[in-house]
Amino acid sequence: xxxxxxxxxxxxxxxxxxxxxxxxxxxxxxxxxxxxxxxxxxxxxxxxxxxxxxxxxxxxxxxxxxxxxxxxxxxxxxxxxxxxxxxxxxxxxxxxxxxxxxxxxxxxxxxxxxxxxxxxxxxxxxxxxxxxxxxxxxxxxxxxxxxxxxxxxxxxxxxxxxxxxxxxxxxxxxxxxxxxxxxxxxxxxxxxxxxxxxxxxxxxxxxxxxxxxxxxxxxxxxxxxxxxxxxxxxxxxxxxxxxxxxxxxxxxxxxxxxxxxxxxxxxxxxxxxx
Length: 274
Ligand code: BTN
Fold this sequence. Notes:
Largest sheet: 7 strands, mixed
Bound molecules: biotin
Helix content: 25-40%
Distance between the termini: 33 Å
Strand order of the largest sheet: 1-2-3-7-6-5-4
Number of helices: 7
Strand content: 25-35%
Order of helices and strands: HEHEEHEEEEHHHHEEEEE
Low-confidence stretches: none
Number of strands: 12
């Protein structure tokens, strides 16, 4: 595993040293190289892997982003992790877990770095200084009568020194923001600690009620104009916040208020990516 001085890598042994969680990451699957940690975990889920199992890799050969995009996943610099959740809730409620994961990633990064204040671009992009620092891809499968199986993949740009071409306009890394190399394993541990607690809060009400204040405090789109890219076209609206089930609430120029569902649209800022 190639890595920078100051980063001890993300092997199972190293992660075990940092993890203080109860169930999140109690079982760790690690590969130096895999296709996608989401795929790795889906295979393990099929063989009965328990709730909270994580898959971590140093490099992905087929890293996936949202909307069928590729997630660049070179070795030695970033976090590629996925966690398996088996919530005993109605399948239609599981889409909220992607917002729970986004809040946990933002809070874990803030906790670990001390000074950085990552924001969330609804529903689940992690943004620093107007550029994307981390992304989340949640995949679920549920058969009727069975508990849902949710795989939440989190990619965090940690020690990337710079981004090539067009990505330089929209992406950033912790190293670029902090000016130093960071150890990846404690970042993973911090995110999982926040996820474990936030997931518990989510389960109490089976919605985002208990997380709404903290999510809203870091929601970059709150009280801002946004461009909504919907299947029927692009329109401008004013975002006021989210509902307790995770939809974005926007007001259109004609005054009508709409709830936007994450699966239907993508949202952009008026100036630039966020
Ligand atoms: C996005 O913002 O488009 C989502 C990116 C998600 C990337 C992570 S990296 C770990 C996990 N494995 C994948 O193939 N994708 C997710």
